[in-house]
Every structure is written in structure tokens, then in C-alpha cells.
Amino acid sequence: MKWEQVPLGPLQTNSYIVTEGYHCLVIDPGDEGKKLIQLLEKRKVVPQAILLTHAHFDHIGAVDIIRDHYRVPVYIHKKEENWLGDPSLNGSKFFMMPVSTSVKPANMFFEKEETITIGDFTFSVFETPGHSPGSVSFYFEEAEFVISGDALFQQSIGRTDLPGGNHDQLLKSIHSKLLALPEQTLVLPGHGYTTTIGDEMDSNPFLNGF
Questions:
Q1: Where are the domains of the chain?
Q2: Could you tell me if 170 and 178 are in contact, meaning their C-beta atoms sit under 8 angstroms apart?
Q3: Which one in 12, 17, 24, 184 has a CA-CA gap of 20 to 30 Å to 70?
Q4: What's residue 87's pLDDT?
């Protein structure tokens, strides 16, 4: 299994392409849908689904372009079912975007923590709220990486001043779910550089003393 980080849009949100053979999962396609389709065609892979760690505008801007082009389902946590089409919830209303972000409803919903299989891919869904109420992380145990969305970053954590954010809840999510993973686990965040669980346990200043 391979993964590729693709920064997209004005906030350079990390989208991820997780590949197994000729199939892939597209995670958090935040913007520049045509660019992402060109990359998928160059890699000669076809998406089996779109997964969203959460519904903030910078993670969802290219959802409809990718979904309509490949006719694949979109997955999101049930708690953010209504966020995709609501600029006041997905945040685009507050960031002076040229056009407010509105995406068609998701097709499938995460409602609990579980290990699921989509096509060629089996992974665990962790509920990691705090940045937003329905934030989730995707853990690929055999490949030893977790896609953490905007929960955990290299030397930082997600902001909690947007609708539904909760700082204490975010810290609890990180410590109980993410830092419980093996220290060698690679963390693929929603922004910035990759890191490891061990590195963040040792040196992330936001996590010390919790």
C-alpha cells in the first residue's frame, strides 16, 4: 500500500491518495479538482471512495468534482452530515472566500469507531473530535500510518475556535486515540509535514502536561 500527499488550495490543505494496485482512496480533496483528476490519471489509479476527516471548507472543495467524475461515494461522520452544504458550519462564511463552499450531501456515514473495508482497503476509523464535532482519523495498521485530519500536526494541534470546537476534547482525543498508537506510526496531517507518534509524544509543546 502506498500513499501520496497532495497540498491543494489557498490553505495548502493536504489531500491524500492511498493506493493499492490500480485502486485508491481519495481523502480530503480540498480544492483544485481538475488538478487532482489529472494526477490520478497520471498515476493510473481509480478511486473507490472519497473519505473526509471532517467537513471544513478547505477539506471538501473538490468533493463534487471528484465524486461526479468517478461516480464514487463520499464518507463523513454523521455528526457533520449537514455541514457540507452549510457555509456557516463548514467555515467558508468566516474566511472571506470568493465563493462560499457548498457540497452535495455525503452518501455514507461513520457513526461509531470501527474497522471497515471499502473495496481493496481495510482501515480503522477513530473518532477524534475537538477540532470539529465529527472529526475522525483513519488508521492503516499494516502500513503503519494514520491520517489525522486537523487533529494532530507536527509540533501542533488543530484550532478549536470554529463552530463545535472544544480544546479539552481535542486533547483528550489525541491522547486517548492517537498517542495510543505505536510510536513508529507515521502521522499524515491535514496541513504541513508528516511526523510520527513518537516524535509528537516527545516534543509537541501542546501536549506536554496534559
A1: 2-203
A2: no
A3: 12
A4: 87
Q: Is 206 helix (H, G, I), strand (E, B) or coil?
A: coil
To which CATH superfamily is domain 2-203 assigned? Ribonuclease Z/Hydroxyacylglutathione hydrolase-like (3.60.15.10)
The pLDDT assigned to 155 comes to 97
Query: Which residue matches cell numbers 481535542?
Result: 170
C-alpha cell at 167: 480544546
> How far from 187 is each of 26, 30, 101, 105, 133, CA to CA, in Å?
17, 19, 27, 28, 21
Question: Of the candidates 79, 96, 84, 82, which has an alpha carbon nearest to the alpha carbon of residue 130?
Answer: 79
Which residue do the cell numbers 452549510 mark?
Answer: 86
Cell of residue 115, nine digits: 474497522
State how far Cα 114 lies from the chain centre.
Answer: 16
In tens, the pLDDT along 137-165 reads: 999 999 999 999 999 999 999 999 988 99
CB-CB contact of 122 with 159 (8 Å): no
For 80-92, what is each residue's pLDDT tens digit?
Answer: 999 999 988 887 7
